[in-house]
Design goal:
single chain, alpha+beta, 3 helices
């Protein structure tokens, strides 16, 4: 079974929140990550030796749901450093088109289908 951050995050919440810049920003604004970065420019968060993309951590905490490995957490704002949970959504890879990848949003109510695998 994969590492479930929900069981371990409580002791790391202060450190997580210190690296999110929410000062003078509304709930509609992007909340940039100011901590370490992954090679591709997304935020990196380490929980008990497990390196994770911070936007996956934020989505999991906000919705208290595990994210299946085959799903992606994408940003409506297209800002890789944004930690505002209102800007995050789940998607699956639909197909590759030329140089890019096309994603299709996965409704949160449809997560049970992925858990059944």
């Amino acid at each position: 079974m994969k590492y479930d951050i929900r069981k371990h995050i409580s002791k790391h919440m202060d450190r997580l929140m210190r690296s999110i810049d929410k000062e003078n920003r509304s709930s509609d604004d992007c909340w940039p990550w100011t901590g370490p970065l992954m090679a591709r420019g997304s935020g990196l968060f380490n929980v008990d030796g497990h390196r994770m993309a911070v936007h996956r951590v934020i989505w999991t905490i906000d919705r208290d749901q595990w994210i299946p490995e085959e799903l992606f957490v994408l940003h409506t704002c297209e800002n890789k450093l944004c930690c505002n949970p209102e800007h995050l959504y789940l998607a699956r890879r639909a197909y590759t088109h030329g140089e890019g990848i096309i994603y299709k949003e996965v409704p949160e109510w449809d997560l049970r289908r992925y858990r059944a695998k």
